[in-house]
Amino acid sequence: MICSITKQVTERGTIVFHVSWKDASGELRSPSRAFWSLTDKWGNVINDRSNIPVTSLKPQIDVVLSGDDLKISDNDLPLAENGRCKYAERFFTILYYYDSDLGAELSGTTQVPFGVIDLVAI
Fold first, then answer.
1. Which of 4, 50, 61, 91 is deepest in the core (most CB within 10 A)?
2. Is 122 a member of any domain?
3. Angstrom distance (rounded) from CA 58 to CA 118
4. Helices (H), strands (E): how many in the chain?
5. How many domains does the chain have?
6. What is the pLDDT of residues 23-80, one digit of tens each?
């Protein structure tokens, strides 16, 4: 599975996760089931986004996060720093199941870290 995203987003902005599933030969395939979660650097679930079922089991999907999904809270302290920029660390995780020549209901997991840039006046 391949996930491509923008690595950072501003607080309460919008980020899109482009997810595609491919088999061993590189062909796009649909999973039989898939779920996603959003957590902070401590493993705390953000905005009740835990094991959210993917309802459109197409070979390629977009998952959009915005608003309270990208809110920074006291649980994010201390914030990470990159030069003059402070940000909260987030992790988008997707768990999926698929069938192949190797077996049925095989599982895979991908986790993508990204930063939520802290805005001073939010």
1. 61
2. no
3. 34
4. 0, 9
5. 1
6. 777 778 899 999 999 999 999 999 999 999 999 999 999 999 999 999 998 888 888 8
The CATH number covering residue 44 comes to: 2.60.40.1930
In contact, 52 and 35? CB cutoff 8 Å: yes
At residue 122 the predicted structure's pLDDT band, cuts being 50, 70 and 90, is: low
Domain residue limits at 112: 2-117
Q: Give me the count of residues in the chain.
A: 122
Residue 65's Cβ-side half-sphere holds a number of Cα atoms within 13 Å equal to: 30
Give CA separation, 68 vs 5, 11, 47, 73, in Å: 19, 9, 6, 10
Q: What is the pTM of this model?
A: 0.86
